[in-house]
Amino acid sequence: MTAARDIVLEVNGERHALRLDPSAPLLAVLRNDLRLNGPKYGCGLGECGACAVLLDGRAARACVMPLSRAEGRRITTLEGLGSIEAPHPVQAAFIAEQGAQCGYCLNGMIMATVALLGRNPSPSEAEIRAALAHHLCRCGTHLEILASVRRAVRERAT
Amino acid sequence: MTPRAAQGLARGEVLAQEGVLAVTRRRAPVPGTPPGANARDEEDVFVAVFDDGSVAAFNGHVDLGTGIRTALTQIVAEELDVRLDAVTVVLGDTARTPDQGPTIASETIQIAAVPLRQAAAGARRALLAMAAARLGTEALAVAEGVVSDAAGRRLSYGELLCGARAILPLDGDAPLKPVGSYRLVGQPVPRADIPAKATGGLTFVHDMRVPRMLHGRVVRPPYAGLDSGAFVGRSLLSVDRNSVAHIPGLVEVVVLGDFVGVVAEREEEAARAARDLRVAWRAFSAPAGLDDVETALRRNPSTRRVLKETGDVDGALAGAAKRMPRTYSWPYQMHASIGPSCALADFAEGALRVWSGTQNPHMLRADLARLMDLPEARIEVTRMEAAGCYGRNCADDVSGDAALLSRAVGRPVRVQLTREQEHLWEPKGAAQLIDVDGGLDAAGNPVAYDFVSRYPSNDAPLLALLLTGAVEPSPAVLGMGDRTAIPPYDYPAMRIAVEDMPPIVRASWMRGVSALPSTFAHESYIDELAAEAGVDPVEYRLRLLKEERAAALVRAVAERAGWEPRTGPRRTGEGDILRGQGFAYALYVHSKFPGYGAAWAAWVAEVEVNRRTGEVVATRIVAGHDAGLMINPDGVRHQVHGNVIQATSRALKERVPFEDGIVAAREWGGYPILDFREVPAVEVMMMPRPEEPPLGAGESASVPGAAAIANALFDATGVRFRRAPFTPEVILAGLEPAAPPPPPRRRWFRGLGGVLGGLAVGAAAALGWAAALAPVQPPGAEAFPAAQLERGRLLAAAGNCAACHTAPDGVVNAGGRGVATPFGTIWSTNLTPDPETGIGTWSFAAFERAMRQGIGRDGRHLYPAFPYTAFAGMTEGDLLALYAHLMAQPPVRSVVPETRLAFPFNLRPLLAGWNLLFHRPGVIEPDPARTAAWNRGRYLVDAVGHCGACHTPRNALGAERRGAALAGGFAGGWEAPALDGSSRAPLAWSEADLFDYLRTGHSPRHGVAAGPMAPVVAGLGALPDADIRAMAHYLAALHPAAAGPAVAPAPDAAAWGAGEGARLFEGACAACHGGGAQDGPEVALAVSTALHSDHPDNLLRVILEGIPSVIPGHGAMPGFGDSLSDRQVEALAAHLRGRFAPGRPAWQDLGGRLRHLRATAR
Questions:
Q1: Alpha carbons B213 and B409: distance in angstroms, whole number
Q2: For a Cys-Cys bond, which of A90, B707, B733, B952 suits B948, CB 3.0-4.6 Å?
Q3: Which residue ranges does the record assign to the Cytochrome c domain (chain B) (predicted)?
Q4: Predicted local distance difference test score (pLDDT) of residue B41
């Protein structure tokens, strides 16, 4: 724990001036200070992926990300992709393919998919599975999630 | 405007509305509740239709991620003839819904939905009667909530209810719609909850926030996962509140018996307080030998209960031509919810409101009433969505925790359990042991089936009740081991019994309850009979399966899957890979014995077995399913998918490991579950039976899974696997039952005895005290020119005074950090200009003497842990600038612990002798033969930066060894790797690498700065690039440029293995270290110096402690010291070494080093 200082975060296109411990986990700040529901606490060890956000478009695990590392970077959460009225194409693909059972892992699945498509617009099945390998789902929604990603790939291509 | 049905009206409010029609039923009083304590309102509402046309439907069950909210919406909309979006389903809420028991046993659609459907039908009948009265005709039609007659006159439900208040009893005799007229039920309907979940809407209890909310964490006792035994609730010795006094925002430490919790303003403060709080506990005795399920379950006291006995079992067994006694065992498993449980409680004015992810709101309310000594009527439990559970996890426990903490602080408190707490304490899916005896007659027909099952589980009482001592820790015996204990086959003689027993560790129902392991036995056994009889296993089943609906499913699934008839194991495949196909069938019979059936299910599983590594891959699963009428076929399909994947995971991978009687898996590396790369192709075959009543689909499809896979393994290998899970170790042991145990490891003992013995002769020349130098007035910042101050600031950064002179969480340079040395702990001093406790009265002469000779102002010798031997090389100008910088800082009063070394090291005058022996004072003079950069680098490295203090090996008296400068040393429990030609780094350190590393803390060709090196790099941040380049230049010149390869050696694929270390790496490390797509410097382990070192210390410390974020803009690695056991860390480190440093010998005595580091590093 280090002393609080002024920190500016750019989250979902908005700048937030905060006074916080720079070693605080980004996840806690996004959830509690910015009241975002998308990133979820799952393990606190970077293992399960429920907390995923995008940092400058790349997937990152917010539970093990010190705030200081997110300074000066573009942070995107699930909320920043789209809304329930106007979902992002990847969100829309997950809704269309019913890519959730309990839905607790859904945030990570969607964020990982957005990051994947950002670096590889037409991933193979093996590349999709590798990109999601360290995003854990316990309900066994894997088949619907894979279908959601394939739909997102398809719809991006058309 | 929000429809009235969606306004969250409480039960009493619904009944008091204008413009409502409600169907209600009088509530039965809670038995055993004292009068007055149960002053609950008396009418349960099932369906309410409002005058805006909206419909509220109330069900006491909850949606655990199975989609029942959507299915119930369909049922109500269908019977009422309204649109789906007119219906709001309210689930599991003590202020709103009826008490329909816990959401277990796949009962929601089959049982709990029945009164809802009847209520909807009753409401429709009443609305039609109202319309008939208004329109004067009974020839009416209804569509989408509008009643019309033949003349085209129309009246909506809303219009009919304008100004009305009709409360009707739920009598259950209203006519239900015939299945043939269904428009909504039986159609695929998208889940109503997914759009909000996909866009970050508020649905999960984890996201619930209220004004004035505080954050809580709990500190659990060491008897993790044990809920019976005299020590439960009685083990707390003391709580040291001072240990968390330093945490800002801390509100309260709450102690009630063995319940310990902390409350803070911010979540990370509460987390920190829970970690730092020092709590002392009594020792306890854990159950022994839980890894050996068979022995543990046979020893557990039990009572035999015979469920069924037909024919002469003993006679038949005695007369069998082939007797086949078999034992099957199932391991402890976890719900392993992805989100650790969370709850929010608000206790105010004698009433409690709880937002919870519980699967049983009413049962939880009764528990909370007991815990808080409140009448149930003063407690409201609102169920919100939670991470999927497949039975009883910690959702209720954390609700009790939140209630206690909220009461203690008088504010709403949100409690989030940690991953470790959820893993350790969740009621486990119980282990199970099943003995089957039977056999064949001479014709290959079975003669008898003698089945006994042991299932140590109950309903896992609320943890807070146990920890506070409100209930006794004596385990109840619930007798839930009888689910699906009766086999589906028509054996001529049968004796089916369960040994009812209490839990051994905390255990409760988990998907498939005891039915899944029982079916593992039933369906493995019939496969064994078929193989012994030389009959195709599907054919053999059909001979004994009398129920036509079951047989039809079996035939259909076999056909769909392309079942390949066989009369024994086929052992097909090529190379290392063997392939097999297996079958299993089950009707999941649940609830209190004899119970009733949910959906029928059958699997054909196809597997590949690697006979060299033991790895099993499920390649294709065909799952047949007969759920009768499917309310939402998409929902059923998703449930079948989920069951297939989860059951495959459970059969292949999942087993709770125990160490010393305690759950040893505290994160995902220790409890791996199936990931996306392992997902088989799944084909679902739904039996079309819309004419049959709807059956529960939440669990059935998982029940045959393990047996189907075991039977496929038999087909592939000819070996019968009767102990799940089928991990590589189990497969290899099965394939080669006589494999010798690995040879015992050679142990290498490291000792310090010789080193310490040599010390006694040292430092003979005692020269007494040096003179004290006169104190001066602190000069203050104004005494020095700005340029000098700036130069001093850079020197302080380059020398990183703060690294040693700042206590953890302390003020910079105020001293008090303990530096561990072989001679004892040396405490760093206060470098701020405080006159009494710091260096405020030090003249420059005194400062210079300390820096060059190691003598304090008072004349006392300083221990050479303070590297004056290096600083002596600094120029006078630099020392003056450094002095100026230090004197210009704000004074901080800070009394640091006095260094007290054991004799003879406590005799500081002896250091005069030491200095004579080892100290070569003198300013470093530039070497004219070298470049300016080299000379600058040398000055920074050898003098100011005192790199040798850590990186040069020390002799027995703690002096840097001559002729071994920068050849590698140890400092503060970390290895400081060699910087000269003796470096073990797999890639040679080039000048560019050194620059990257010193400048950014990261070299892509070597790794990141960790341990004490991380703050060093952070300090170097103040220096200009030119200085860093000079250091890199000097260091690079220390070793021959060509040493080492230019590219990393390829990791040794063969050494990866598939064992525990590999699994731990995959689960705990590979998300970031697996070449994945995570943000941040990708640390290629193959080039890591720590992994190639002669010593495992740095790797072990990084695993235990992680790498904190010290370098600005740099990432962090979490420590796994609280999440992995010693055995796990050892297995992981050995795996990393073998995999990423294949050319280097295995480390010896990893366990010993680990225990040493655990003991000393904290």
A1: 11
A2: B952
A3: 787-890, 932-1039, 1056-1140
A4: 53
Fold held by B4-181: Aldehyde Oxidoreductase; domain 4 (3.30.365)
Percent of chain A with pLDDT over 90: 93
* pLDDT value at B408 more than 50: yes
Q: Domain residues for A153?
A: 81-157
Please answer whether residues A117 and A79 qualify as being in contact, where contact means their C-beta atoms are separated by less than 8 angstroms: no
More confident residue, B768 or B1104: B1104
Q: Of A80, A112, A141, which one is at a domain's C-terminal end?
A: A80
Nearest CA in chain A to B1067: A47
Confidence of residue B33 (pLDDT cuts 50, 70, 90): low
Residue B324 C-alpha from the chain's centroid: 41
Number of domains in chain A: 2
B1024 class by beta-carbon count within 10 Å (0-12 exposed, 13-18 middle, 19+ buried): exposed
Q: Best mutation site among A37, A117, A151 for testing chain B: the one with the most B CBs within 10 Å?
A: A37
* Contact yes or no for B646 and A48 at CB 8 A: no
Q: A123 CB near a chain B CB, below 8 Å?
A: no
Q: Do A43 and B247 touch (CB under 8 A)?
A: no
Pairing assessment for the beta strands B43-50 and B55-59 based on DSSP bridges: antiparallel
Interior/surface letters B1053-1070, b for 16+ CB within 10 angstroms, e for the rest: eeebbbbbbbbbbbbbbb
What pLDDT digit, counting tens, does each position of B219-253 carry? 999 999 999 999 999 999 999 999 999 999 999 99
Instruction: Give pLDDT tens digits for B483-530.
Output: 999 999 999 999 999 999 999 999 999 999 999 999 999 999 999 999
- What does the block give as tokens for B316? 């038949």
A139 interface with B at CB cutoff 8 Å: yes
Closest by CA to B384, choosing from B41, B65, B105, is: B65
Q: What is the mean pLDDT of residues B571-586?
A: 97
**What is the average pLDDT score of chain B?**
91
Q: Are residues A45 and A71 in the same domain?
A: yes
Q: Which band of pLDDT confidence, cut at 50, 70 and 90, is reported for residue B1053?
A: low
Task: Classify domain B205-285+341-416 by CATH architecture.
Answer: 2-Layer Sandwich (3.30)
Q: CB B8: neighbour CB atoms within 10 A?
A: 14
Q: How confident is the model at residue B763 (pLDDT cuts 50, 70, 90)?
A: very low
A151 to chain B, any CB pair closer than 8 A? The answer is no
ipTM of the complex: 0.98
Residue with tokens 């740095």: B1098
Q: What is the DSSP letter of A8?
A: E
Residues B777-790 have a mean pLDDT of 87
Residue where a domain terminates, one of A31, A58, A80: A80
pLDDT at residue B148 is higher than 80? yes
Q: Looking at chain A from residue 65 to 94, which residues have their Cβ under 8 Å from any Cβ of chain B?
A: 65-66, 68-69, 71, 77-79, 81-84, 87, 91, 94
Dihedral of CA atoms B635, B641, B643, B644 in degrees, nearest 10, equals 160
Region B870-874: mean pLDDT is: 93
Q: Which amino acid is at B494?
A: M
Contacts of A30 in chain B (CB under 8 A): none
Looking at residue B600, what is its pLDDT? Answer: 97
- Give the CA distances from residue B944 to residues B470, B788, B791, in Å, rounded to whole numbers and listed in that order: 63, 16, 12
Interchain CB distance below 8 Å, A66 and B1109: yes
For the domain made up of B293-311+325-332+430-735, the CATH class stated in words is alpha beta
Q: Does A89 lie in the same domain as A57?
A: no
Q: pTM of the full predicted structure?
A: 0.91
Q: Do B268 and A25 touch (CB under 8 A)?
A: yes
Contacts of B381 (CB under 8 A, 6+ apart): B92, B93, B94, B354, B356, B358, B361, B362, B364, B365, B368, B399
Those residues whose C-beta lies under 8 Å from the C-beta of residue B819, and which sit 6 or more positions away, are B804, B825, B826, B827, B828, B865, B972
